[in-house]
Amino acid sequence: MEDLDRGVRLVAAQKDVWASLSPKEKLSIIDELMDRLQAFSSDLHEASIEKRDEPAAVLTDDSPSPAADLAADSTKKKETLEDGFACVDAKTRRMIATASGVSHWMHSSMLTGIWLSVIREYFESVVATGKPPPPFAVRPAAAGTECAQDAEPGKRPSRHFVKVGPKGLLFTTLLTFGSMELLVEESPTEQELVHERTANVVAILGAGNFDAPIDVLASLFVENSVCVYKSSPFNPRVAPVLAEIFKPLVDRNFLLFVEGDVKQGEALLHHECVTKWYMTGSIHTANRILWGTPTPPEKTEPVPKPLLNKPFTAELGSCTPWIVCPGN
């Protein structure tokens, strides 16, 4: 725990340094990260696709010759194959392996590259113009979320749909040709730019089934915060590769990768320097962190206080919100 404490304090000490870096400096860091992602992309994919939970007794004889069939038959009979992937024929296994390889590439190297590209576009625009990139489209909306045709004649609409993505054919295809829009209210309120947000020290509990460090990128470049990333015990194999990709940030103590069990995770979240936390996992895990039990307490008076009272962002069981239109 002493190493964890020392590491968190080193990162926390760099919080204001990171927040004070100019957009131009962060743009330079992003370019370096993109170069390193390209250099280590194959390593990240190989770590991502590394087989887990596959039965040990799996036939590797993909295409035996007829003459070898009889010789191999006695050996095959001695092998005990478990239900599932091990019982699939060779051709189907190859198809599954190819599909698995593509899917792992999509949610590791490719998704990381897409996020870096989107973030880079923001900082490139700020460096060039002092402003974020303009939206792709803006259309007025009437009260609620009804279409603009329902607005009162001659009255300026107070709400607008602002399309912010996706950009490019690849990104659009990945989102199944959907649209990313914000419903914005017209008011004198101003929101700070991303690179001007108040910095935090973010603790991240990494996903067990996902390999792209989206939470790291969001923490650093969207939240303007330094972070400590603890890899999941179920998915520790990509952390060393990610540490190489993010080495420019690790070397300056803007980012730290750690491993460990539940006790390490608990110590990280409750560390006095940590001001915010992210997690990807089950709602039961989140409840244990907040309440100490897999289910939340009953609503009583006085209102129960959580064990960990810090702001957090959690993706629980991939319960990602979607608005489906039309809703019939």
TrEMBL record:
The name this protein goes by in its record: Aldehyde dehydrogenase
Region Disordered, residue ranges: 51-75
GO molecular function, one term: aldehyde dehydrogenase (NAD+) activity
Membrane-spanning ranges: none
EC number, as in UniProt: 1.2.1.3
Organism (species): Toxoplasma gondii FOU
Low complexity: compositionally biased ranges: 61-73
InterPro entries according to UniProt: Ald_DH/histidinol_DH, Ald_DH_N
Keywords assigned by UniProt, alphabetized: Oxidoreductase
Taxonomy of the source species: Eukaryota, Sar, Alveolata, Apicomplexa, Conoidasida
EC top class, as a word: oxidoreductase
